[in-house]
Amino acid sequence: MTILDDAAFTELLRLRAEAPEAVADRSARRLRRPLLVGDKRLLIVAVDHPARSILGVGQDPWAMADRRRLLTHTIRALRRPGVDGVLASPDILEDLLLLGELETKVALGSMNRGGLTGTVWELDDRFTGHDAATIERLGFEGGKMLLRIDPTDPGTLATIESCAAAVTDLASRRLIAMVEPLPAVRDQDGMVRVTTDPDALVRAVSVASALGATSAYTWLKLPAAADPGRMLDATTLPVLLLGGDPGGDVEGLVRSWRRAMAFPQVRGLVAGRSLVFPADGDVERWVDTAVEIVHGP
In which domain, by residue range, is 234 found? Predict the structure, then answer.
């Protein structure tokens, strides 16, 4: 069966041009679900990378540049049993909504995408995507924000302040605030690199846990570090593991997920490129592997 055939894609393009009100109409009719059901764990597919100018996966620098291909791969992942929802930028989340792929799924909006990869302002990560009011209006379950912390870059401060305000705004509406705190450094070429140094991760988690006027609705999105114990011991907030780009070592990434899932703070996984664009192209196989890790056999 074709996932996104010509008729469905043509209809999506028609709605985009001729019926902008269809986004609000479809969101009002969408079948929603509680955030946590069954075993109280979550497997979320992430597809917010293009909005921050990240289009490459592994050795293919343009893997996510074709929107129809990206939507097709995402839908293949979303339709697998055990996948709970999706995290995406407004354009992609609305494409999926118009295609009818968000029924009974958790939908999380991506909020700050202004820190475009490779730019001099990358760590001054402005909120250019979803806001709390729109997330509430469209009936989505929460918003995600990226917080990379570099003590040598003043752009970090503006991002911390903006994330704190977003946490407060989401919580006032009883919506989930998913914060992704990552310690960062610039390499000798000036490129931002995320570090998995244990001390830096503990500091980042401690800062993120305290953002906003209340942490009642805050979840953390954290890397499955080689030794995740200290990082996870730094918070009582619920944690979803970060998927990341595995490069050629998907098996190693999967092992890190299994290891970290054993900690009680961990409630599941948010994975993007590793599931939507695996190196061997077998989306279903890798999604099913992630389902087994999160929800069990």
Answer: 6-295
The average pLDDT across 261-280 equals 94
Q: Is residue 218 part of a domain?
A: yes
Rounded to whole angstroms, the Cα distance separating 137 from 246 reads: 35
The helix/strand/coil state of 17 is helix
Give the separation between CA 211 and CA 183, rounded to whole angstroms. 16
CATH of the domain at 137: 3.20.20.70
pLDDT reported for residue 245: 66
Q: Which amino acid is at 168?
A: T
Pairwise CA distance, residues 155 & 158, whole Å: 6
Average pLDDT over residues 167-186: 97
Instruction: Provide the number of structural domains found in the chain.
Output: 1
Written as six digits, the tokens of 251 are 């098996």
* 192 is a domain residue: yes
- pLDDT category at 194 given cuts 50, 70, 90 is very high
In terms of Cα–Cα distance, which of 79, 75, 77 is closest to 67?
A: 75
**Are 260 and 198 in contact, with CB atoms under 8 Å apart?**
no
Residue 243 counted as domain residue: yes
- CA 183 vs CA 70, 151, 235, 273: distances in Å: 29, 9, 16, 21
- Quick: pLDDT tens for 198-253: 999 999 999 999 999 999 999 999 999 888 999 999 999 999 999 876 666 778 88
Could you tell me where the DSSP H helices lie in the chain? 6-18, 22-29, 67-78, 90-98, 132-137, 155-172, 198-209, 229-233, 250-260, 273-276, 283-295
1 in a structural domain: no
